[in-house]
Amino acid sequence: MNRRGRAAVAALLAATATLGVIGAPVAAAAAEPRRGTEQQARAWLPQPTGPYPIGTTSLQLTDDHRDDPWTPGQHRTLMVSLWYPTTRPATGNDRAPYMLPAAADHFGSADSVAQSENRFEPGRTDWAGIRTHARADAPALPGGRRPVVLYSAGFGDPRTWGTALVEDLASRGYVVVTVDHTYDASEVAFPDGDLATSVLLAQMARPGIDMGAFLRKILQTRVDDTRFVLDRLAGLRHDAQLPAGLAASLDLDRIGMVGHSGGGSTALQTMHDDPRLKAGVNLDGQLHFPGPDGTGVHLSTVAEDGLTRPFLLMGTQESDSGSYHQQPGWDALWQHSTGWHADVTLAGSRHGSYTDAQSLLPQLAHQGAISGEALTRDVGDVRPDRAVLSTRSYVASFLDRWLRGHDDHLLDGPSPRFPEMVYER
């Protein structure tokens, strides 16, 4: 949930931004500037730090056994992308686009969830011009099976909004599967040209909505999506339509999950519901909901029951986020879990600091496409390069430890290498 959604249910969700649900529409969105009156802002993703070049490919997946909960009468259909080590780096126009043109146009418009949340100026950024560091449909790097990591973005965010972290993991040797949750994500572009846009804002505007039930439906839908993707991954190991060598590289005995905001909530709830996930990272995603009357605390089942497998909580310095001491869902999870767990908070950060907002929005601010006030509200005052490096290092350290058996001891306690990370155990 974003900040406007948090205000609507402040008594319980407090920082429902950490749960990642979108809130009420912005009261008065800025008028979209006329084309040609201003030069569009440009931005670049940070370079991955691992030793491997990256490939990427996208797939459409349809669950023939489940109706779409947001659009009754049709089967649930998702878009996923796989990011993986490949044989040679992408250069120039070989670099895959950050967003497809139709998705980029909507993402940057006054009608998108992204504009409502981040308040960049509509139409002022060339989102379609941003390039990844990956080569589309490249052959997978030989070398045997590799651990798999699922990535889920925040409620209302597209799967692309965590690309910098995803690319870094792929460059370190992981196969990362990013999931777009259709009609939840701001927009999802399909191969046939269809663009499915989020219904959550309209749902939020319904009179008398039960906010707790609404949030639980979103989370349950995402968990169902994730378990469906896990089911399909087994079939993908024999899919000849994937880029050469990719199917054989999937090690489905070593699967972890990382998510931001509502995606972080999804990661841990899916761990609770599905033993195929061996480890999970929650980037600022809450685990509690409003009660039936909008007051009180309703805990998710993962918070009530705890986890027996390892997880990492990474909080931000929103006034009602931070460590597990400040969140009833995180605190309950902490007390009820028997598996390894740790909690860190990025000093000077805000909810967007664990997303591509941290690297892209400062560039847009320098070009006048987002105000300084909106920038600080979204990503705080932590140095962007330090926030990106810290996030990548802690997520990789956790996954290396629990999916590869390589422990660099970064998560043993406070580290002088990362003074901006406040460690709690």
TrEMBL record:
Coiled-coil features, chain-numbered ranges: none
Signal peptide: 1-30
GO molecular function terms attached to this record: hydrolase activity
Keyword Signal: yes
Keyword Hydrolase: yes
Keyword entries, A-Z: Hydrolase, Lipid degradation, Lipid metabolism, Signal
One Pfam family in the UniProt entry: PAF-AH_p_II
Domain of life of the native organism: Bacteria
InterPro entries on file: AB_hydrolase_fold (IPR029058)
Stretches the record annotates as Disordered: 32-52
Gene3D superfamilies in alphabetical order: alpha/beta hydrolase (3.40.50.1820)
Name of this chain's protein: Dienelactone hydrolase
Organism name: Kitasatospora paracochleata
